[in-house]
Amino acid sequence: MTNVQSVRSAVRIMELLAEEPLLGISDVARRLELPKASTFRIIHTLADSGWLEEEFPDSRRWKVAATFGVSFVRPSGSFSEAAQQAVNAVRDETGETTHVLVPSGAALMVVFRAESRQDLRTTLSIGTRVPWDASSSGAAYLASVPPAEREQILGDPEALLERAGDLAHLHRIIDRAVDRGFAVIQGRWRPGIGGVAAPIRDGAGRPVGAIAISYPLSRVPEFSPCSAGELLARHARVIEQSV
């Protein structure tokens, strides 16, 4: 395969996985009628460049990477515009730093944000990776998938126990998020900082990310996480119209 052919094949692979994520290498090779060895090499090259990623580590099911996906999958910018408008609106209404996050391998990644204008505020930079098991955005996302998939995302139970500590408390947070439509976590990931998040779903009802607020715990009860969660859920529905 020449360099030009490799580039064309890479573009076709990106286009296919943008339209049909979570395909294996054999599936991609068969759909595009490409040699399996070449498909393997191109996919891993794209992954090394940050353009593709596995659904979970070692899942062998591939998708467009979160850091590349918004611009590649939606060249019209509709998702980008809706997400940025939402974080700006929530920040302006609550006064707190607001983010949109999407899955990125073994974590969620901040891809849009609007920072609080208050002197005492929380800050997460674009590209920050947020843990599934200790963040409100992770809990909101996990509450939106079937239990079996939830356990797969969280990974090895022993490693999770060592990393997250009180698993019963984590599962109570997720169960409550299932009932309420948003998740609240206080001080689990970063001491003194709370988070509230609502899932963003696609047309099939599967989560594709989360919209979240982070806030200093010293602001409670002036800041109401439950009211903020309801606000985030409403804005998530607006973002979903662009997904």
UniProtKB/TrEMBL annotation:
PROSITE patterns per record: HTH_ICLR (PS51077), ICLR_ED (PS51078)
PANTHER family tied to this protein: HELIX-TURN-HELIX TRANSCRIPTIONAL REGULATOR, ICLR FAMILY, HTH-TYPE TRANSCRIPTIONAL REPRESSOR ALLR
Pfam families according to UniProt: HTH_IclR (PF09339), IclR_C (PF01614)
One annotated GO molecular function: DNA binding
Name this polypeptide is given: Transcriptional regulator, IclR family
Entries under InterPro entries matching the protein: GAF-like_dom_sf (IPR029016), HTH_MetabolicPath_Reg (IPR050707), Tscrpt_reg_IclR_C (IPR014757), Tscrpt_reg_IclR_N (IPR005471), WH-like_DNA-bd_sf (IPR036388), WH_DNA-bd_sf (IPR036390)
Listed SUPFAM superfamilies: GAF domain-like, Winged helix' DNA-binding domain
Lineage: Bacteria, Bacillati, Actinomycetota, Actinomycetes, Micrococcales
Gene Ontology BP terms: negative regulation of DNA-templated transcription
Residue ranges constituting the HTH iclR-type domain according to the UniProt record: 4-66
SMART domains xref list: HTH_ICLR
UniProt keywords, alphabetically: DNA-binding, Transcription, Transcription regulation
Recorded superkingdom: Bacteria
Source species: Brevibacterium jeotgali
Domain IclR-ED: 64-243
